[in-house]
Protein backbone atom coordinates (compact mmCIF):
# COMPACT_ATOMS: atom_id res chain seq x y z
CA UNK A 1 0.00 0.00 0.00
CA UNK A 2 1.32 3.44 -0.92
CA UNK A 3 0.85 5.91 1.86
CA UNK A 4 0.20 9.59 1.08
CA UNK A 5 2.68 11.99 2.58
CA UNK A 6 0.11 14.50 3.86
CA UNK A 7 -3.58 15.25 3.43
CA UNK A 8 -4.48 18.93 3.28
CA UNK A 9 -7.77 20.26 4.62
CA UNK A 10 -9.55 22.44 7.13
CA UNK A 11 -10.77 22.24 10.71
CA UNK A 12 -13.38 24.38 12.46
CA UNK A 13 -11.53 25.47 15.57
CA UNK A 14 -13.54 26.00 18.77
CA UNK A 15 -11.86 28.48 21.12
CA UNK A 16 -14.48 29.03 23.81
CA UNK A 17 -18.16 29.78 24.56
CA UNK A 18 -19.64 32.68 22.62
CA UNK A 19 -16.85 32.70 20.04
CA UNK A 20 -17.59 31.64 16.46
CA UNK A 21 -15.75 28.64 15.14
CA UNK A 22 -12.77 29.55 12.99
CA UNK A 23 -11.89 27.67 9.81
CA UNK A 24 -8.16 27.15 9.54
CA UNK A 25 -6.04 25.15 7.12
CA UNK A 26 -4.01 22.24 8.46
CA UNK A 27 -2.68 18.86 7.37
CA UNK A 28 -2.79 15.21 8.43
CA UNK A 29 0.30 13.03 8.17
CA UNK A 30 0.36 9.39 7.07
CA UNK A 31 -1.00 7.01 9.71
CA UNK A 32 1.44 5.43 12.11
CA UNK A 33 1.25 1.86 13.37
CA UNK A 34 -2.30 0.97 14.42
CA UNK A 35 -3.78 4.23 13.11
CA UNK A 36 -6.39 4.72 10.38
CA UNK A 37 -6.69 7.91 8.36
CA UNK A 38 -10.31 8.70 7.47
CA UNK A 39 -11.79 11.30 5.13
CA UNK A 40 -14.81 12.63 7.03
CA UNK A 41 -18.05 12.49 5.07
CA UNK A 42 -20.48 13.89 7.61
CA UNK A 43 -20.64 15.06 11.22
CA UNK A 44 -23.82 15.48 13.28
CA UNK A 45 -24.28 18.06 16.02
CA UNK A 46 -25.00 16.25 19.29
CA UNK A 47 -26.74 18.10 22.12
CA UNK A 48 -23.53 17.81 24.13
CA UNK A 49 -21.81 19.87 21.39
CA UNK A 50 -24.49 22.54 21.85
CA UNK A 51 -23.96 22.46 25.62
CA UNK A 52 -20.24 23.00 25.05
CA UNK A 53 -20.84 25.92 22.71
CA UNK A 54 -23.18 27.49 25.28
CA UNK A 55 -20.66 27.07 28.09
CA UNK A 56 -22.67 24.50 30.06
CA UNK A 57 -20.10 21.80 29.41
CA UNK A 58 -16.42 22.49 29.91
CA UNK A 59 -13.74 21.29 27.49
CA UNK A 60 -10.10 22.20 27.05
CA UNK A 61 -9.55 24.66 24.20
CA UNK A 62 -8.72 25.10 21.44
CA UNK A 63 -10.40 21.97 20.17
CA UNK A 64 -12.29 20.51 17.24
CA UNK A 65 -15.79 19.46 18.26
CA UNK A 66 -17.96 16.70 16.84
CA UNK A 67 -18.02 13.02 17.73
CA UNK A 68 -21.00 11.69 15.73
CA UNK A 69 -19.04 11.05 12.55
CA UNK A 70 -18.88 8.78 9.52
CA UNK A 71 -16.17 8.70 6.90
CA UNK A 72 -14.27 6.72 4.30
CA UNK A 73 -10.94 5.07 5.03
CA UNK A 74 -8.03 6.70 3.23
CA UNK A 75 -5.14 4.58 4.47
CA UNK A 76 -3.62 2.56 7.30
CA UNK A 77 -0.05 1.75 8.25
CA UNK A 78 1.03 -1.24 6.10
CA UNK A 79 2.65 -3.07 9.02
CA UNK A 80 -0.62 -3.78 10.82
CA UNK A 81 -3.88 -4.98 9.24
CA UNK A 82 -6.95 -3.51 10.93
CA UNK A 83 -10.16 -5.43 11.58
CA UNK A 84 -13.50 -3.99 12.58
CA UNK A 85 -15.65 -5.11 15.51
CA UNK A 86 -17.11 -7.96 13.46
CA UNK A 87 -13.79 -9.25 12.16
CA UNK A 88 -14.00 -7.60 8.73
CA UNK A 89 -10.75 -6.35 7.24
CA UNK A 90 -10.73 -2.57 6.97
CA UNK A 91 -9.65 -1.34 3.54
CA UNK A 92 -9.30 2.04 1.83
CA UNK A 93 -12.67 3.23 0.56
CA UNK A 94 -14.70 1.53 3.31
CA UNK A 95 -17.43 3.69 4.83
CA UNK A 96 -16.99 3.38 8.58
CA UNK A 97 -18.16 4.53 11.96
CA UNK A 98 -16.27 4.12 15.23
CA UNK A 99 -16.72 4.42 18.97
CA UNK A 100 -16.41 7.89 20.45
CA UNK A 101 -13.20 6.81 22.17
CA UNK A 102 -9.96 4.85 21.87
CA UNK A 103 -8.82 2.65 24.77
CA UNK A 104 -5.51 1.09 25.74
CA UNK A 105 -6.72 -2.51 26.18
CA UNK A 106 -4.58 -3.36 29.21
CA UNK A 107 -5.41 -1.07 32.15
CA UNK A 108 -7.61 -2.07 35.12
CA UNK A 109 -10.87 -1.00 33.47
CA UNK A 110 -10.03 -2.52 30.09
CA UNK A 111 -9.20 -5.78 31.85
CA UNK A 112 -12.57 -5.64 33.63
CA UNK A 113 -14.56 -5.17 30.42
CA UNK A 114 -15.06 -1.44 30.91
CA UNK A 115 -13.00 -0.11 27.99
CA UNK A 116 -15.25 2.95 27.91
CA UNK A 117 -13.71 3.93 31.26
CA UNK A 118 -10.10 3.21 30.24
CA UNK A 119 -7.51 4.98 32.39
CA UNK A 120 -5.93 6.28 29.16
CA UNK A 121 -9.18 7.06 27.35
CA UNK A 122 -8.99 9.27 24.28
CA UNK A 123 -12.34 10.82 23.33
CA UNK A 124 -13.01 12.07 19.84
CA UNK A 125 -14.33 15.60 19.65
CA UNK A 126 -13.25 16.30 23.24
CA UNK A 127 -9.44 16.57 23.18
CA UNK A 128 -7.46 19.83 22.97
CA UNK A 129 -5.55 20.51 19.74
CA UNK A 130 -2.75 22.85 18.74
CA UNK A 131 -3.55 26.44 17.84
CA UNK A 132 -2.77 25.69 14.20
CA UNK A 133 -5.37 22.89 14.16
CA UNK A 134 -2.86 20.06 14.08
CA UNK A 135 -3.73 17.11 16.27
CA UNK A 136 -7.39 17.45 15.36
CA UNK A 137 -9.55 14.56 16.57
CA UNK A 138 -13.05 15.93 16.03
CA UNK A 139 -15.65 15.58 13.33
CA UNK A 140 -15.83 19.24 12.30
CA UNK A 141 -12.88 18.77 9.99
CA UNK A 142 -12.00 17.29 6.61
CA UNK A 143 -10.00 14.34 7.99
CA UNK A 144 -9.46 12.46 11.21
CA UNK A 145 -6.77 10.04 12.37
CA UNK A 146 -8.20 7.18 14.40
CA UNK A 147 -5.95 6.11 17.25
CA UNK A 148 -4.89 2.53 18.02
CA UNK A 149 -7.53 0.95 20.24
CA UNK A 150 -10.45 2.63 18.47
CA UNK A 151 -13.38 0.20 17.94
CA UNK A 152 -14.20 0.61 14.23
CA UNK A 153 -17.19 -0.77 12.35
CA UNK A 154 -17.70 -1.04 8.62
CA UNK A 155 -21.13 0.32 7.74
CA UNK A 156 -23.67 -1.66 5.70
CA UNK A 157 -24.51 0.05 2.42
CA UNK A 158 -28.21 -0.15 3.28
CA UNK A 159 -27.90 2.43 6.08
CA UNK A 160 -28.12 6.00 4.68
CA UNK A 161 -25.56 8.57 5.80
CA UNK A 162 -27.98 10.55 8.00
CA UNK A 163 -29.07 7.40 9.85
CA UNK A 164 -25.49 6.16 10.18
CA UNK A 165 -23.95 9.33 11.61
CA UNK A 166 -25.56 9.33 15.12
CA UNK A 167 -25.11 5.57 15.58
CA UNK A 168 -21.89 5.97 17.56
CA UNK A 169 -23.39 8.22 20.23
CA UNK A 170 -27.14 8.54 20.79
CA UNK A 171 -28.17 5.13 19.59
CA UNK A 172 -25.23 3.25 21.08
CA UNK A 173 -25.97 4.91 24.43
CA UNK A 174 -29.56 3.65 24.22
CA UNK A 175 -28.29 0.17 23.40
CA UNK A 176 -25.94 0.34 26.40
CA UNK A 177 -28.79 1.32 28.73
CA UNK A 178 -30.86 -1.71 27.80
CA UNK A 179 -27.89 -4.07 27.83
CA UNK A 180 -26.90 -2.90 31.29
CA UNK A 181 -30.51 -3.13 32.47
CA UNK A 182 -30.60 -6.74 31.25
CA UNK A 183 -33.35 -8.65 29.47
CA UNK A 184 -35.37 -9.50 32.61
CA UNK A 185 -35.75 -5.75 33.15
CA UNK A 186 -36.94 -5.09 29.59
CA UNK A 187 -38.98 -8.07 28.40
CA UNK A 188 -42.63 -7.74 29.47
CA UNK A 189 -41.74 -4.68 31.55
CA UNK A 190 -43.44 -1.34 32.09
CA UNK A 191 -40.85 1.25 31.12
CA UNK A 192 -40.74 5.01 31.44
CA UNK A 193 -38.38 6.89 29.11
CA UNK A 194 -37.73 10.49 30.15
CA UNK A 195 -36.77 12.46 27.05
CA UNK A 196 -38.12 12.07 23.53
CA UNK A 197 -34.97 13.10 21.68
CA UNK A 198 -32.71 10.93 19.54
CA UNK A 199 -31.37 8.79 22.39
CA UNK A 200 -34.76 8.51 24.07
CA UNK A 201 -36.57 7.33 20.96
CA UNK A 202 -33.72 4.96 20.13
CA UNK A 203 -34.28 3.45 23.58
CA UNK A 204 -38.03 3.23 22.92
CA UNK A 205 -37.51 1.43 19.62
CA UNK A 206 -34.93 -0.98 21.07
CA UNK A 207 -37.06 -1.71 24.15
CA UNK A 208 -40.09 -2.42 21.98
CA UNK A 209 -37.98 -4.76 19.86
CA UNK A 210 -36.81 -6.54 23.02
CA UNK A 211 -40.35 -7.22 24.23
CA UNK A 212 -41.28 -4.35 26.56
CA UNK A 213 -44.96 -4.56 27.52
CA UNK A 214 -45.74 -0.92 28.16
CA UNK A 215 -43.59 2.11 27.25
CA UNK A 216 -44.48 5.63 28.35
CA UNK A 217 -42.38 8.58 27.17
CA UNK A 218 -42.15 11.83 29.10
CA UNK A 219 -41.55 14.62 26.59
CA UNK A 220 -42.25 18.26 27.40
CA UNK A 221 -42.60 19.33 23.78
CA UNK A 222 -46.03 18.31 22.42
CA UNK A 223 -44.71 18.68 18.85
CA UNK A 224 -42.72 15.48 19.37
CA UNK A 225 -45.51 13.35 20.84
CA UNK A 226 -46.72 11.86 17.58
CA UNK A 227 -43.15 10.92 16.73
CA UNK A 228 -42.76 9.10 20.06
CA UNK A 229 -45.80 6.95 19.27
CA UNK A 230 -44.41 6.19 15.82
CA UNK A 231 -41.24 4.84 17.43
CA UNK A 232 -43.16 2.43 19.63
CA UNK A 233 -44.36 4.30 22.72
CA UNK A 234 -47.77 3.30 24.07
CA UNK A 235 -48.34 6.78 25.49
CA UNK A 236 -46.64 10.15 25.73
CA UNK A 237 -47.09 12.69 28.54
CA UNK A 238 -45.64 16.08 29.29
CA UNK A 239 -45.06 15.42 33.01
CA UNK A 240 -44.02 12.26 34.88
CA UNK A 241 -46.95 12.69 37.27
CA UNK A 242 -49.25 11.94 34.32
CA UNK A 243 -47.38 8.77 33.45
CA UNK A 244 -48.83 6.64 36.27
CA UNK A 245 -52.27 6.82 34.68
CA UNK A 246 -50.84 5.21 31.54
CA UNK A 247 -49.78 1.97 33.28
CA UNK A 248 -52.17 -0.96 33.00
CA UNK A 249 -55.00 -1.23 35.51
CA UNK A 250 -53.39 -3.80 37.79
CA UNK A 251 -50.27 -1.70 38.14
CA UNK A 252 -52.26 1.46 38.73
CA UNK A 253 -54.46 -0.15 41.39
CA UNK A 254 -51.38 -1.27 43.26
CA UNK A 255 -49.70 2.13 42.75
CA UNK A 256 -46.68 0.11 41.81
CA UNK A 257 -44.79 2.45 39.49
CA UNK A 258 -42.55 1.52 36.58
CA UNK A 259 -40.32 -1.54 36.50
CA UNK A 260 -37.59 0.36 34.67
CA UNK A 261 -37.06 4.10 34.25
CA UNK A 262 -34.56 5.45 31.71
CA UNK A 263 -33.42 9.06 32.16
CA UNK A 264 -32.26 10.57 28.86
CA UNK A 265 -33.39 14.18 29.22
CA UNK A 266 -30.16 15.41 30.77
CA UNK A 267 -31.25 17.29 33.89
CA UNK A 268 -31.27 16.87 37.65
CA UNK A 269 -35.02 17.42 37.61
CA UNK A 270 -35.43 14.49 35.22
CA UNK A 271 -33.32 12.32 37.52
CA UNK A 272 -35.52 13.25 40.49
CA UNK A 273 -38.62 12.43 38.46
CA UNK A 274 -37.14 9.08 37.54
CA UNK A 275 -36.51 8.27 41.19
CA UNK A 276 -40.11 9.09 42.09
CA UNK A 277 -41.54 6.99 39.26
CA UNK A 278 -39.72 3.67 39.71
CA UNK A 279 -41.53 0.91 41.60
CA UNK A 280 -40.35 -0.84 44.75
CA UNK A 281 -37.71 -3.31 43.63
CA UNK A 282 -37.40 -1.45 40.33
CA UNK A 283 -34.43 -0.06 38.49
CA UNK A 284 -33.47 3.46 37.42
CA UNK A 285 -30.91 4.03 34.67
CA UNK A 286 -29.26 7.43 34.22
CA UNK A 287 -27.52 8.45 31.00
CA UNK A 288 -28.67 11.93 29.99
CA UNK A 289 -26.75 14.17 32.38
CA UNK A 290 -23.20 14.44 31.04
CA UNK A 291 -22.36 17.92 32.32
CA UNK A 292 -22.24 19.54 35.76
CA UNK A 293 -25.74 19.66 37.25
CA UNK A 294 -27.25 20.34 40.67
CA UNK A 295 -27.32 17.29 42.97
CA UNK A 296 -30.58 15.53 43.75
CA UNK A 297 -31.86 14.41 47.13
CA UNK A 298 -31.46 10.71 47.86
CA UNK A 299 -33.09 9.30 50.97
CA UNK A 300 -31.03 6.27 52.11
CA UNK A 301 -33.95 4.86 54.10
CA UNK A 302 -36.23 5.02 51.06
CA UNK A 303 -33.51 3.39 48.94
CA UNK A 304 -33.27 0.52 51.41
CA UNK A 305 -36.99 0.05 52.03
CA UNK A 306 -37.89 0.37 48.34
CA UNK A 307 -35.07 -2.04 47.37
CA UNK A 308 -34.10 0.25 44.49
CA UNK A 309 -31.31 -0.17 41.96
CA UNK A 310 -29.75 2.91 40.38
CA UNK A 311 -27.14 2.72 37.64
CA UNK A 312 -25.35 5.24 35.46
CA UNK A 313 -24.25 4.53 31.89
CA UNK A 314 -21.61 6.56 30.08
CA UNK A 315 -19.68 6.19 26.79
CA UNK A 316 -20.97 2.61 26.14
CA UNK A 317 -19.22 -0.67 25.34
CA UNK A 318 -18.00 -1.42 21.78
CA UNK A 319 -20.60 -4.20 21.57
CA UNK A 320 -23.30 -1.55 21.87
CA UNK A 321 -22.14 0.06 18.63
CA UNK A 322 -22.63 -3.29 16.90
CA UNK A 323 -26.11 -3.65 18.44
CA UNK A 324 -27.08 -0.14 17.37
CA UNK A 325 -25.84 -0.65 13.81
CA UNK A 326 -27.57 -3.99 13.39
CA UNK A 327 -30.81 -2.55 14.70
CA UNK A 328 -30.62 0.42 12.35
CA UNK A 329 -30.00 -1.95 9.46
CA UNK A 330 -33.07 -4.03 10.36
CA UNK A 331 -35.39 -1.13 11.29
CA UNK A 332 -34.38 1.43 8.71
CA UNK A 333 -37.45 0.87 6.54
CA UNK A 334 -39.92 0.28 9.39
CA UNK A 335 -39.32 3.25 11.70
CA UNK A 336 -39.46 6.96 10.81
CA UNK A 337 -35.80 7.73 11.40
CA UNK A 338 -35.98 10.58 8.88
CA UNK A 339 -38.25 12.48 11.32
CA UNK A 340 -35.16 12.83 13.56
CA UNK A 341 -33.11 14.52 10.85
CA UNK A 342 -33.09 18.27 10.47
CA UNK A 343 -30.82 20.69 8.68
CA UNK A 344 -28.08 19.39 6.37
CA UNK A 345 -25.51 21.94 5.26
CA UNK A 346 -21.99 22.35 3.98
CA UNK A 347 -19.02 22.26 6.32
CA UNK A 348 -18.12 25.77 5.20
CA UNK A 349 -21.38 26.94 6.81
CA UNK A 350 -20.73 25.19 10.13
CA UNK A 351 -21.69 28.25 12.21
CA UNK A 352 -25.18 28.36 10.65
CA UNK A 353 -25.55 24.61 11.22
CA UNK A 354 -24.63 25.00 14.89
CA UNK A 355 -27.09 27.86 15.34
CA UNK A 356 -29.85 25.77 13.76
CA UNK A 357 -29.02 22.86 16.10
CA UNK A 358 -29.11 25.12 19.16
CA UNK A 359 -32.63 26.33 18.29
CA UNK A 360 -34.03 22.95 17.21
CA UNK A 361 -33.59 20.36 19.99
CA UNK A 362 -34.96 16.96 19.15
CA UNK A 363 -33.53 16.85 15.63
CA UNK A 364 -30.03 16.29 14.33
CA UNK A 365 -28.25 18.85 12.17
CA UNK A 366 -25.52 17.58 9.86
CA UNK A 367 -22.41 19.09 8.29
CA UNK A 368 -21.44 17.48 4.98
CA UNK A 369 -17.74 17.73 4.24
CA UNK A 370 -18.07 17.15 0.50
CA UNK A 371 -20.93 19.57 -0.23
CATH superfamily of the largest domain: Medium-chain alcohol dehydrogenases, catalytic domain
Structural class: alpha/beta
Helix content: 25-40%
**What is the straight-line distance between the termini?**
29 Å
The count of domains is 2
H and E order: EEEHEEEHEEEHHEHEHEHHEHEHEHEHE
Q: Please, how many helices?
A: 12
Number of strands: 17
The CATH topology annotation of the largest domain reads as Quinone Oxidoreductase, Chain A, domain 1
CATH C-level of the largest domain = Alpha Beta
Low-confidence stretches: none
The CATH architecture designation of the largest domain is Alpha-Beta Complex
How much beta, percentage-wise?
15-25%
Tell me about the largest β-sheet.
Answer: 7 strands, mixed
Q: What overall geometry do the principal axes of the alpha carbons give?
A: globular
Overall pLDDT, averaged? 92
Search tags:
six-stranded parallel sheet, seven-stranded mixed sheet, 24% strand, Rossmann fold, 17 strands, alpha/beta, 371 residues, globular, 2 domains, Quinone Oxidoreductase, Chain A, domain 1, single chain
Molecular structure report:
This protein is α/β, with parallel strands linked by helices and 371 residues long. The protein folds into two domains: 7-158 and 332-368, Quinone Oxidoreductase, Chain A, domain 1 (Alpha-Beta Complex); 171-312, Rossmann fold (3-Layer(aba) Sandwich). Helices cover 26% and strands 24% of the residues. The protein contains twelve helices and 17 strands. The protein has helices at residues 47-53, 108-111, 161-164, 170-181, 198-209, 225-230, 240-243, 249-254, 268-277, 300-306, 318-331, 350-359, and strands at 7-13, 22-28, 36-44, 68-76, 95-98, 101-102, 122-123, 143-146, 152-154, 190-194, 214-218, 235-237, 258-263, 278-286, 309-312, 341-346, 364-368. The strands form four sheets. Strands 3, 4, 5, 8, 9, 16 and 17 form a seven-stranded mixed sheet that branches. It starts with 6 loop residues before the first strand and ends with a strand.
Amino acid sequence: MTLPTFQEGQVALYEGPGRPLRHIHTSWGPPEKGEVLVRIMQCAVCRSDVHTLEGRRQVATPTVLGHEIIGRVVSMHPSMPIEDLQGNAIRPGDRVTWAIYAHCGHCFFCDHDLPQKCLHLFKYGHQPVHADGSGSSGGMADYITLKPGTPILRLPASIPDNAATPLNCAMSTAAALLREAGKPWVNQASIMVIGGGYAGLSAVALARDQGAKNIVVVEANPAFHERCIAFGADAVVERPQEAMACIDSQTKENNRGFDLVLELAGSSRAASMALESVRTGGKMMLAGTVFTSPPIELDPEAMVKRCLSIQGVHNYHPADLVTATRFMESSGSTLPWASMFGHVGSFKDIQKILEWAAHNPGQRAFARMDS
